[in-house]
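User: Could you go from structure to sequence for me? I need the amino acid at each position, not a summary. Structure tokens:
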């Protein structure tokens, strides 16, 4: 999890990203198949989500960020 000397090291750590949510940094990773995890070492809090619908990924990310206390989830968008 340490920050290396490579370009972009402030946000990327060997497959794990540093994601700023509100005023806190989280380690995060999302996968191609609709998975997402956020972890706060300070709070010892992990929140994960999965969706089988790629169109719902942004809403899931907003819901995970809401769960960790970032902001209200964005409202669902109509299909099409």
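Assistant: Here is the amino acid at each position, in order:
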């Amino acid at each position: 999890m340490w920050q290396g000397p490579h370009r972009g090291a402030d946000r990327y750590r060997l497959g794990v990203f540093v994601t700023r949510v509100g005023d806190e940094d989280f380690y995060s990773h999302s996968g191609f198949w609709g998975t997402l995890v956020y972890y706060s070492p300070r709070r010892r809090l992990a929140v994960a989500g999965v969706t089988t619908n790629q169109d719902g990924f942004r809403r899931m990310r907003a819901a995970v960020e809401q769960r960790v206390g970032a902001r209200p989830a964005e409202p669902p968008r109509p299909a099409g």
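One structural detail worth keeping in mind: The longest helix spans residues 57-67.
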